[in-house]
Amino acid sequence: SSGGVATNAIMNVDFRKKFVLGCGSDRSCRIWTLDTERLIHKFTGHAGKVCAGKFTPDCKAVITGSTDRKVMVWNLESGHRLRNISCGSTCNSLDVNEEGTLLVTGHQDNRVRLWDLRASVKQVKVVQVHSGQVTSVRFSKDGKSILTNS
């Protein structure tokens, strides 16, 4: 990569408020601001491609998922990693509910995992709903349902 330009394959993008997130095949994620178009953070720490990433609704954190079977939570202001969660399978997709309290992740092992983000992150439920890997997950607007795809 050269400066704020991502030269690797972008695996996932997200935007919220004035920020843009790009997750890459180079095992990193980058955050740019829309107003200045400048790179403000480059998150490194994953050992594999970063396939998924989302801002939390309050825009205080970024959550990323990777082929390294880990989900990481990053502080958007400082750029520091807050949590390193071992999830047992490649994370293909993730989403955060509107309250910022629940995380859903979709995995290569055909499973969907639900995590409680309050205080210490803990896995609440694991279900196998597909016969193939889960490629995308999304909370409904009211947070009562989860849409999955395989």
Describe this structure in words.
The protein is mainly β. It is 0% helix and 55% strand. The chain contains no helices and 14 strands. It has strands spanning 10-16, 19-24, 28-33, 39-44, 50-55, 61-66, 70-75, 81-86, 91-96, 102-107, 111-116, 122-128, 136-139, 146-149. The strands form four sheets. Strands 1-2-3-4 form a four-stranded antiparallel beta sheet, with no helix packed on it. A hairpin with a 5-residue loop joins β7 and β8. The radius of gyration is 14 Å and the shape is globular. The relative contact order is 0.13.
SSE inventory with pairings:
Elements (H helix, E strand, L loop, with lengths): L9 E7 L2 E6 L3 E6 L5 E6 L5 E6 L5 E6 L3 E6 L5 E6 L4 E6 L5 E6 L3 E6 L5 E7 L7 E4 L6 E4 L1
Antiparallel strand pairs: 1-2, 2-3, 3-4, 5-6, 6-7, 7-8, 9-10, 10-11, 11-12, 13-14
